[in-house]
Amino acid sequence: MDELAALRHNLDAIRARIDAACRAAGRDPGEVRLLPVSKTVDEARLRQAHAIGIREFGENKVQEAMGKWEAMADLPDLRWVLIGHLQTNKAKYAARFASEFQALDSLRVAEALDAQLQKQGRALDVLVQVNTSGEATKFGLVPEEVSGFVRQLPAFASLRVRGLMTLALFSDDEARVRPCFVRLRELRERLRQEAPEGIAMDELSMGMSGDFELAIAEGATTVRVGTAIFGSRATPDSAYWPGFAGSGAGTP
Ligand SMILES: *Cc1c(COP(=O)(O)O)cnc(C)c1O
């Protein structure tokens, strides 16, 4: 199989697994968005992905994403989704090109993004990242903080809050992974009751190559899939998740 055919094959296989997971959970496959995660994947392969119909890419690091955005400016129908922790001093880059940011976890970042977006006359879809695994090394707010945090977000007019995002525990043990997804769903149900005007709590971005079926069973509306589409990464995941010492794909 050539590269393009292999990519199409992987994508079809993932879509089929998403459909099957939806059917098993009694859900409509149209409710679940597949977000292809393209960190470490080079421009040539991204162009192949575009050629077979992919129109959005999830990227963990803002500089890497911005480089790709600039290189692929000839494809204006692409949507760039930032899914990794953002430092305040990099908000100006994100504000320039990102359509969506799934890792909001501080008011300082919200403020910096909003200010930069106002300058550019842009808006940004935003998810709040929640640490559902209780691991000290993970980014995200602890579940107890999210309600108070969300109540402050209407102050930032350029941020369109859509819901929540999490990374589950990295483990092959379903019994330890599933509670992370359940926690995020239950949190969203609670926040839906009390969310301020203009704050939507519909999106649940959870599930990756190793656990997206479980996430769908627990209500994911977006699954973020990298290696199962693009193949394993040479860069270890510790470059993206501080303290990561799991056994997932991409770990040397
Ligand atoms: C890399 C990454 C993913 C995708 O991980 P895979 O295991 O390659 O599917 C999902 N979410 C975030 C935040 C990531 O950084």
Automatic annotation (TrEMBL):
The keyword Hydrolase does not apply. It holds the Pfam family Ala_racemase_N. SUPFAM superfamilies: PLP-binding barrel. Residues 10-233 form the Alanine racemase N-terminal domain. The modification N6-(pyridoxal phosphate)lysine is found at residue 39. Keywords: Pyridoxal phosphate. HAMAP family: PLP_homeostasis. Pyridoxal 5'-phosphate (PLP)-binding protein, which is involved in PLP homeostasis. Belongs to the pyridoxal phosphate-binding protein YggS/PROSC family. This is Pyridoxal phosphate homeostasis protein. It comes from Luteimonas composti.
